[in-house]
Design brief:
The protein has a domain of 224 residues: 3-Layer(aba) Sandwich (Rossmann fold), CATH 3.40.50.300. The protein has 17 helices and 7 strands. The strands form 2 sheets. Strands 5-4-6-7 form a 4-stranded parallel β-sheet, with helices on both faces. The protein starts with 43 loop residues before the first helix and ends in an 8-residue tail after the last helix. Bound molecules: 3'-phosphate-adenosine-5'-diphosphate. The site of 3'-phosphate-adenosine-5'-diphosphate has 21 residues, from helix 3, helix 8 and helix 15. 3'-phosphate-adenosine-5'-diphosphate binds next to helix 3, helix 8 and helix 15.
Length: 361
């Protein structure tokens, strides 16, 4: 039995909130959670029969599911989420296309919600100092694809934090129509998103060309594509229901991270108290989750896989923790794309967003 340590972390006077997002940490390391049984509802039956009928982009290992391009290995997870995910009041879903700031948003939301038990400054045992943000906030598609969705999610105390790359259109109504579930969305200039995706993918696909991703992005068939549909789904939802969908942009977060932490805390129903404002707690959250801070932590320099027993076996794979921290800036696309490539992608996006009220430029 792994020890649960972090839930009993030091109480703080900074927030009177009752222990938000208690965190089950690695304890004795006996790894019992690694051998969890899969859910009875493990969606393996979809794996071959249904998936093989879906349109594919074999070069990128993608399938087109309900109009959205997703990794083939995620499809059973998405189906299981749509069929069986039972949200609880207070659930917070962090949504994003890949490589748009998910790791950062996970860290910020976790640090903000957990600050009652884990002060963002002066707590040497803070989970974010010891495990990668992806091990603090589970990724739904992969968890459910592994048949562990209900088991792991049910075991999490409320309020739960979870993440997805699913399009808004694909989310189950039980989330979308639930006034007690909140969604925080983050997107990013598609040029930087593609460069980030390319650099990340090349770790296991050295043959992959940036032009391959560009082609796919322009015709809508890149991972989580069509990008415009992904963004507009959440953009429109945030306009219709700003109290349940918060729309963030990576570039704006870089420009003014503290204001965005404050915005996030308010949206999550956990605004900083006057005493916290006085003590600069939003700044502490921002510092703890900054690119420089997280990138330089031992766990993110040398670690890999899942440091959380409840997620063990789900996040282990080809990508070491350091692969989630590359440049952490806006505009790196200019170092990798030709002006022509950039113009083409910009033009496609401009055309697709025309009249929507949203624009990346
Ligand atoms: P994921 O979809 O695999 O989870 P995600 O975290 O969304 O990846 O995106 C990774 C990008 O966020 C990387 O961008 P880059 O390749 O252009 O550098 C990564 O560096 C950046 N990133 C990770 N953590 C932070 C952070 N704390 N602050 C700012 N950017 C960050």
């Amino acid at each position: 039995m792994a020890n649960v340590t972090a839930c009993t972390g030091p109480a703080t006077v900074l927030s009177g909130l009752p222990a938000p997002v208690p965190f089950k940490d690695v304890g004795g390391g006996d790894g019992d959670a690694g051998q969890q049984d899969a859910d009875a509802s493990a969606p393996e039956e979809y794996a071959s029969a249904v998936i093989s009928d879906l349109p594919s982009n074999p070069k990128l290992f993608l399938r087109r599911y309900q109009g959205t391009w997703v990794l083939e290995s995620w499809v059973p997870g998405i189906v299981a989420i749509q069929r069986g995910f039972a949200p609880r009041g207070g659930d917070v879903i962090l949504a994003s296309p890949p490589k748009c700031g998910t790791t950062w948003l996970k860290a910020l939301a976790f640090a903000t919600m957990a600050r009652g038990v884990h002060p963002p400054a002066g707590d040497p045992g803070h989970p974010l100092l010891r495990v990668n943000p992806h091990d603090c906030v589970p990724f739904m598609e992969k968890l459910f694809a592994a048949g562990l969705g209900s088991k792991v999610m049910d075991a999490l105390p409320s309020p739960r934090l979870m993440a997805t790359h699913m399009h808004h259109s694909v989310l189950p109504a039980s989330i979308k129509k639930n006034p007690d579930c909140k969604i925080v969305y983050i997107c990013r200039d598609p040029k930087d998103m593609l460069v980030s995706m390319w650099q990340f993918s090349r770790r296991i696909r050295p043959d992959l060309e940036l032009s391959d991703l560009l082609e796919a992005a322009c015709d809508g068939s890149c991972l989580s594509g069509p990008i415009w549909d992904h963004v507009l789904g959440y953009w429109n939802a945030s306009k219709v229901s700003p109290e349940t969908v918060l729309f963030l942009r990576y570039e704006e977060m870089l420009q003014d991270p503290v204001s965005n932490v404050v915005k996030l805390s308010r949206f999550l129903g956990r605004p900083f108290s006057p005493a916290e404002e006085e003590a600069g707690v939003a700044m502490d959250v921002m510092r703890l989750c900054s690119f420089e801070k997280l990138k330089d932590l031992e766990v993110n320099k040398a670690g890999s896989g899942s440091g959380s027993p409840s997620l063990r076996g789900v996040r282990e794979g080809a990508f070491v923790n350091s692969s989630y921290f590359r440049r952490g800036e806006a505009g790196d696309w200019a170092n990798h794309m030709t002006p022509e490539m950039a113009r083409r992608l910009d033009a496609v996006m401009e055309e697709r967003f025309c009249g929507s009220g949203f624009s990346f430029s």
